[in-house]
Amino acid sequence: MRKALFGLALLTTLAGSVAAATQAAAAAPVVQPDQQRAGVILTHDETAALGDGPIPALVTMVVPESRIGAGLKPDTQLYHDQNGNVHASLRQVIEEAASHPDGSVVVMANVPGSHGTRLLDVFQQWH
User: Where does the UniProt annotation place the signal sequence (predicted)?
Assistant: First the structure.
């Protein structure tokens, strides 16, 4: 129960922060109960606003970077080793997606323990 409450609190904080940072509040919510996570799909403009604002720094003050997963595009310029470990900050992952004309991110908050040690996952998207 404590895990679910923590996950809900984290998701609520994240959603509120994203809405405040983007001003447009057009982020599309996504819920995956079978995978025990929920989050938001951001537009390009929302992704750029998120990367330029204080939210990545505030999130990493609460959630250690070792607990944040990153789904990188195959043509990423960010360093990741042969084991799939990403050596980049949350801000770098977001800003790289925002640097593409159609780039965006999906941010998912995981119920603690449902995805190993990861509490937050950020997936890059662009074509």
Answer: 1-20
Spatial distance between the Cα atoms of 113 and 34, rounded to a whole number of angstroms = 14
Q: Hey, is 79 helix, strand or coil?
A: coil
In DSSP terms, 32 is beta-bridged to 37
Which 3 state secondary structure label does DSSP give 102?
coil
The answer to whether 110 and 82 are in contact (CB under 8 A) is no
pTM of the predicted protein model = 0.80
- List of the chain residues with pLDDT < 70: 1-25
Is 120 in contact with 59 (CB distance < 8 Å)?
yes
The single-letter code of the amino acid at 33 is P
DSSP 86: B
